[in-house]
Structures are given as C-alpha cells and as structure tokens.
Design a protein that fits this description.
- This protein has a four-stranded antiparallel beta sheet.
- It is α+β, with helices and mostly antiparallel strands and 157 residues long.
- It is built from four helices and four strands, in the order H-E-E-H-E-H-E-H.
Amino acid sequence: MTCRHRKGDPNCSSTPGGYPEQERQAARERDSRRSAEAKVAAAAVEARVAELLSRTPNQDDYEIVKHEPVGPHMVLLVQYSSCEKCSFDSRKIMVFLDVAATDVMYWRRIDPHFSESDPADRRTAPAPRARYPADDQGWDDAVGFARSKAALPVGWC
C-alpha cells in the first residue's frame, strides 16, 4: 500500500513529523504544564506551612513568667519567644490539673495545645486543661477555674 500524503502531513501516521509527532509534542506540553502546576502547588503548600509555623510556638523555647499553685493544680503564664505571630505578646496562660511545683521544675517542653503527651515522660508537660487570654482578666479567670476544680474557697491559696 502506498501513502498518498505529502511529507509532514499532520493527517499521515507513517511519515516523519506526521500525526504521531504531533501527539508526542502535545503530550510533552501537557507534562510540562502539569509539572509547572505541581511546582506552584508545592510552593503554596510550603508557604502555608511556613505561615503556620510562624504562629505556632516552639515548645522547647519558653520562659515561665508567673505561676500560682491552686491546691493540687498549677496556673502558669508562659512566654514563647519563638512565636512571632502569637497574640498577647507570645504569652499564654494555662491551667494544669494535678501538677505540683516540683513537676514543673522537670519540664523542658510545654505544648500550649491540647495534645496528648506521655505520662511517663517527666520532661514534657501534660496537656493543659484550659487556656486563657494572657491579660489580667485571663489570669483571674484561670485561677478561678483552678479553684473550682480544686473545690477551694475563694480566699484560700
């Protein structure tokens, strides 16, 4: 059988540069477009992760600014210097139930989120039972909550 198409005719599948070459070129363009879209998506994910990390404190980099034992519980005001975009000047007020001052001395990591921790690990704080805004009213509310959990009268410390 003889081909009746001109050389390079896009409708010809048997001559160089014909239909198969167009398909290969279209496939290369699709792959290139998909690769570019994947790079843009990866960059967007990377930017979102960086933004979230800037709002999440480093659990190992903190300073306990203020503490108050309330019966068997502890109220802490903690400053996280690594949290650039945290509200209240990177400070967090947290209430820890059934925690002694000696327990707090061993902690090397305080996660302000309500995530579970290993109870056998003395170097990591347990999850806080409550968090409050780091202002005077938040402190009073946190101490009041700790008192309510300890069932202590208002004047007792």
